[in-house]
């Protein structure tokens, strides 16, 4: 049986979107057994994928690295896809017995390098052979999505990510919908507008989020349920957004699903949305993997790299420093009115598939 190893450890959103390669790998290497090496935090995003046979977790300490390396060296790999450029992972890839290696490794002098076949992707990254300035220029000029680039450079059909959700996550999300009256015929707009600590300019200011909610609610003939989402570090931010939306009046209802949900429950909760308005963040990739419609906004990062799979629309900064990867990039052109217009267009498309998480039917007398 052919053995394939995928090394993709972080970040969480990147791990999930990289699952798009799995159908193509299985098609190209028929009958292959796929092992995926990832971070322990990312395991819930991989372990239920039907095309992954085994998940191995990697922690950033010497003992873990040694144990993982010894375990993986016991297999003769037909194909290793080494898709992270950190030195310990490059060293791991270089030590494995592989018929074919694609991706990051070590060169003869022990420096980080990558194989020729992955130049289209790694040539836009930190290991680019002609330096960071050229890599940054290529990243700005790039108009191809990450799954399209991966498919071409690996010689596989283009696929899409998938995140099968466990029963406990589905049940928790459905219970939330039942408790808050999120019936199937209600309008639910998810809001995931923060971005964590690293990329402040990915984040939409709280006041702009509330203004979007007010403007959008004013265009609708029925009340709008705004599902205010985020992680634990966004608790205070979300409280302020919820208070602002509740002050709008009866046309806007703010709902708080909490900020301490595990990854799969968070995914199931956001999948209650008719459309998710989101930053370029983990939530965007979770939505796409659960076939949730999205309006995604971009300022410091590349919108071109993101494939929406027909599920939504991008709102892209028009500032001069768009796609600069600067933490203080100008996102002022991501206005409430642009987001309102995009949200209306996405909703007008209607649903083409059942929701991953069903909402309760309204009882009729």
Strand order of the largest sheet: 3-2-1-4-5-6
For the record, the CATH class of the largest domain is Alpha Beta
> Uncertain segments of ≥5 residues (pLDDT<50)?
none
Supply the CATH architecture of the largest domain: 3-Layer(aba) Sandwich
Strand content: 15-25%
Instruction: Describe the main β-sheet briefly.
Output: 6 strands, mixed
CATH fold topology of the largest domain: Rossmann fold
Write down the Rg: 21 Å
The residue-averaged pLDDT reads: 95
N- to C-terminal distance: 59 Å
| Helical content (DSSP H or I, runs of 4+) | 25-40%
How many individual β-strands? 12
Note the run of SSEs as H and E. Answer: EHHEHEHEHEEHHHHEHEHEHEHEEH
Number of domains: 2
Structural class: alpha/beta
The H-level CATH homologous superfamily of the largest domain, spelled out, is Glycogen Phosphorylase B
Shape: globular
Tally of helical runs: 14
């Amino acid at each position: 049986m052919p053995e394939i190893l995928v090394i993709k450890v972080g970040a969480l959103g990147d791990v999930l979107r990289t699952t798009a390669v799995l159908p193509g790998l299985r098609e190209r290497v028929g009958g292959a057994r796929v092992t995926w090496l990832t971070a322990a935090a990312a395991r819930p995003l991989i372990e239920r994928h039907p095309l992954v046979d085994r998940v191995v977790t990697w922690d950033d300490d010497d003992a873990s690295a040694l144990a993982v390396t010894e375990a993986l060296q016991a297999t003769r790999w037909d194909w290793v896809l080494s898709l992270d450029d950190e030195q310990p992972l490059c060293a791991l890839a270089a030590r494995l017995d592989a018929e074919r290696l694609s991706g990051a490794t070590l060169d003869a002098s022990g420096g980080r390098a990558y194989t020729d076949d992955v130049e289209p992707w790694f040539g836009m990254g930190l290991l680019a052979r002609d330096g960071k300035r050229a890599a940054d220029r290529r990243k700005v000029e790039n108009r191809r999505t990450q799954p399209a680039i991966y498919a071409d450079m690996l010689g596989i059909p283009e696929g899409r990510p998938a995140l099968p959700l466990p029963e406990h996550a589905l049940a928790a999300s459905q219970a939330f919908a039942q408790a808050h009256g999120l019936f199937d015929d209600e309008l639910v707009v998810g809001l995931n507008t923060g971005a964590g600590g690293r990329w402040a300019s990915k984040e939409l200011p709280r006041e702009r989020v509330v203004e979007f909610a007010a403007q959008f609610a004013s265009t609708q003939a029925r009340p709008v349920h705004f599902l205010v989402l985020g992680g634990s570090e966004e608790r205070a931010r979300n409280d302020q957004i919820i208070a602002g939306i509740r002050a709008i009046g009866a046309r806007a209802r703010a709902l708080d699903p909490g900020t301490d949900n595990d990854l799969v429950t968070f995914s199931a909760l956001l999948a209650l949305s008719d459309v998710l308005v989101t930053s370029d963040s983990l939530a965007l990739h979770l939505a796409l993997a659960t076939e949730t419609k999205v309006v995604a906004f971009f300022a410091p990062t590349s919108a071109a790299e993101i494939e929406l799979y027909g599920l939504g629309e991008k709102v892209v900064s028009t500032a001069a420093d768009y796609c600069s990867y600067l933490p203080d990039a100008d996102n002022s052109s991501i206005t409430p009115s642009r987001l309102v217009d995009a949200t209306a267009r996405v909703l007008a498309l209607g649903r083409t598939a059942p929701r991953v998480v069903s909402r309760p039917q309204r009882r009729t007398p």
